[in-house]
Write a structure and sequence with these properties.
Layout (H helix, E strand, L loop, with lengths): L1 H20 L5 H8 L12 H28 L2 H23 L17 H14 L3 H24 L4 H29 L10 H12 L28
């Protein structure tokens, strides 16, 4: 009996050692993968590519600022999750600008303040809508993600550089995830059928069907108003 006891202890210790040696996959690994474009070889840049890099960096800064303000206004977890994803997008673009020796147009000390007049008007409009109600904030956020998705597609169309294409594709995928999250949250919380504000209907419908077709939902948590007590959507998920 005593011998069996020691055998069991040995087995348990061996298993613990194996588990300890397994690589842990979490936020750090995901962050490193998201930054993969930074470590890819540099290629020659056209003026259009440089312009889009700067434009996307500023748009990611604006998106982060908007979600920061909306989370502080409404304390909605969905806004915090997307805010964190926008921070990764912004960091990626800053690193890409640094990689190519381009100036960084972002001033992180000023929330909601931009030297670009069009960007300032867009932010002011989003903030005005978002401050009206949580529902209006989600509608404004969905419109923002539509515009980001369209701009990132245009940015992709201007470049054949492998590193830029990877970076833009990753952020475009993130914008699609954020858009779906807002659309599903609006349906879950308010039974509101969102209609696209910028995307054409066929593109919008295709994006909405991507997760439904695989039986998945964006990584957002509901408030139990329409889809069962306490949970509207699965918790977790990749919001990059």
């Amino acid at each position: 009996m005593k011998k069996l006891f020691y055998v069991l202890i040995a087995v348990m210790l061996t298993a613990a050692g194996v588990n300890a040696q397994r690589p842990q996959q979490g936020r750090m690994g995901g962050q490193q993968n998201f930054m993969a474009a930074v470590n890819m070889p540099k290629e020659d840049l056209s003026l259009a590519e440089k312009t889009w890099m700067t434009k996307i960096a500023l748009e990611e800064k604006m998106a982060y600022d908007f979600y920061y303000m909306m989370f502080n206004k409404w304390n909605e977890p969905a806004f915090m999750r997307i805010m964190n994803a926008e921070l990764r997008h912004k960091t990626l673009m800053v690193r890409m600008l640094e990689k190519y020796g381009l100036s960084n147009p972002i001033d992180d000390s000023k929330i909601g303040q931009y030297t670009d007049n069009d960007l300032q008007r867009t932010y002011n409009s989003l903030l005005s809508k978002g401050n009206q109600s949580l529902k209006d904030a989600m509608i404004a956020a969905a419109g923002l993600e539509e515009q980001d998705y369209m701009d990132l597609q245009q940015a992709l169309d201007t470049t054949d550089n492998a590193d830029l294409r990877l970076a833009f594709r990753q952020m475009k995928k993130g914008s699609a995830n954020h858009l779906r999250a807002m659309v599903f949250q609006l349906k879950n919380l308010y039974d509101y059928d969102y209609e696209p504000q910028h995307l054409d209907k066929s593109t919008f419908d295709s994006l909405m069907q991507e997760h439904r077709g695989r039986g998945q939902r964006p990584g957002m948590r509901g408030h139990g108003r329409h889809r069962g007590p306490g949970r509207g959507y699965r918790q977790g998920g990749n919001m990059n």
